[in-house]
Amino acid sequence: MQARVTLREALEAAKRVGVCAQALTEISRMADWDEFSRHRNAPYWAYWYACNVAQGQVRDMEPIIARDPEFAYRYARHVVLGRWPQGEPAIAQDPEWAWRYAKHVISGRWPLGEPTIAQDPEWAWRYASDVIRGRWPEAESVIAADTYCAYCYAYLVLHRRWPEAEPVIARDPAWAYRYARHVIGGRWPEAEPTIAHNPKWACRYAIDVLRGPWPEAEVA
User: When you count CB atoms within 10 A of the terminal residue's CB, does the N or C end of the chain come out lower?
Assistant: First the structure.
C-alpha cells in the first residue's frame, strides 16, 4: 500500500474482500492512520490487509505489524516469505513465536531468540528437538524442572536416561511410567513408590514394564 492511500480508501478496499463486521464497525469510527495504529487489534488488522487486500507487503503498515510477536512472525512467513529483520526484535521476546520463526522461517538456530526460548521449558525442548536437533545445555536446567518437558527431552532429544531430571519425573506416576517404559526400557525402582499408588499407572507398569504381577501395587 502506498503512503497516499487514506484510511477510508483502505477500508473500502477491505470491504470489497469481506472484512469482518466487527472490525469494520471499529475501524470506521477512526479518524486516521494514527488512531488506527494505537488500537490493540491493529497488528492483526494490518496483517489481514496484507494477506487479503494487498496480497503482498504493505510498507506503511509494517511498523504496526512489527510490534506484535505473533503477527510479525505470520507476516514474515506468509507475506515476506523469509526473514523480516524489522519484526525480529518483537518475535524474539516471545518463546513460542521465536521457536516458530527459527523453525519455519530461518530453518535453523536463531541466537537472538534463544535467551527467551531457553526460559520456557516446553519451547526449549521443542527448539532442541526441531531446530538444534540435539542437546541444548544452556536450557537444560529449565527443561529439567518440568516433568512433561523433561521426559520429552530425554526421550526425543537425548534418546537416553537423563539423571539430572529423574527426581522431577519420578514424582509424576504417568510420566514416570513412560520414562521407565520408553527411556529406561525396564524397571525404575526410584519411581516405583509413586507409580504404585496410582491404580491406572501401576497396572500399566505391571503389564508393560514388569510384564507380570506387582504385589506392592495390588492394594492400589
Answer: C
Q: What is the mean pLDDT of residues 81-96?
A: 98
Quick one: CA dihedral 49, 55, 61, 63, positive or negative? positive
In the numeric block, which cell numbers belong to residue 159? 534418546
Q: How far apart are CA 101 and CA 69, in angstroms?
A: 10
Boundary of a domain, candidates 20, 49, 65: 65
Q: What is the pLDDT of residues 163-205, one digit of tens each?
A: 999 999 999 999 999 999 999 999 999 999 999 999 999 999 9
- Identity of residue 60: D
136 assigned to some structural domain: no
Domain of residue 180 covers 170-220
DSSP notation for 53-108: IISS--GGGHHHHTT-HHHHHHHIIIII-S--GGGHHHHTTSHHHHHHIIIIIISS
Q: How far apart are CA 140 and CA 153, in angstroms?
A: 9
